[in-house]
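Demo today. Your pick:
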Amino acid sequence: MKILLTPYDPAWPVLFHREYEWIAWALQPDQVHIEHIGSTSVPDLPAKPVIDVLVGLATFDLAPVAVERMVAHGFTYLPQYEDGMPFRRLFIREVDGKRISNVHTVEFNTPFWRRHLAFRDHLRSHPEVRDQYAQLKLDLSQKEWDSVNDYAQAKTDFIRAIEAKILG
């Protein structure tokens, strides 16, 4: 399978805001932090047209309640990813069979939380790094992949190198 990347769409922040509202409706907004992450959160970066959202829970003890509420509000919970990341709960939201968002729910201010925001912020403030990442993504999107996860894994070395630089 090839990965479909689209040019940056200025509507993506608006779509994030809609997802923010859905999540805030599902969860108690005073107990969570909600951030737009991933390539759709970085202006001028091509991306798969799916909004990535990072939800930080006050404590991960709230994860079972978050799962219950998110599912009750139309999100699909993907428990199969817990084995690889037991500290995260992953949800998707689809409308008419089209994926709208991936929602990564973790404890607020943990290493997972900090590194995702640091990478996003670095790409936003360093256009030369953003452009290197864009080229990598475009090159990788031309290859055949068994799954989207394989494509994501192929970007990991670049991402980890940037994270090591900015997080020490």
